[in-house]
Amino acid sequence: MHVAPLDGPPPRVDVGDASGSSGGLVLALQYIDLVTPGDLTARHTIAATGEVGPGGQVGGVLGYVQKIDAARRAGATVAIVPQGAGVSPPSGVKLLETTDVRMAMGELCMLGGVSSACGNAAFDPGRV
Q: What is the pTM (predicted TM-score) of this model?
């Protein structure tokens, strides 16, 4: 996990017109990737959905099948959903299940992510 202090405002992530709690997991992973050295996604196109609770727990949302199918059409090769979502991935999409943000990060690290969040990338003070 990135432990160096950050200076300045938090990074801006443009979510367009999206709203609701379903984006909690993907936004959490995006922020982690932005503020840590390396590439947490290992150049995979990642889709993720799930509500993030106060302790980082990932809770269920609605519309998994539709979200994963839309993500596949947009080029996603990996989809991360809350554990127990009970969905089957479409062809060409690797489905990962998680109980919390830390577990989702670990899954991305195991897919080849190179990031200080994975413990396999050095801190570069020029990046933050």
A: 0.80
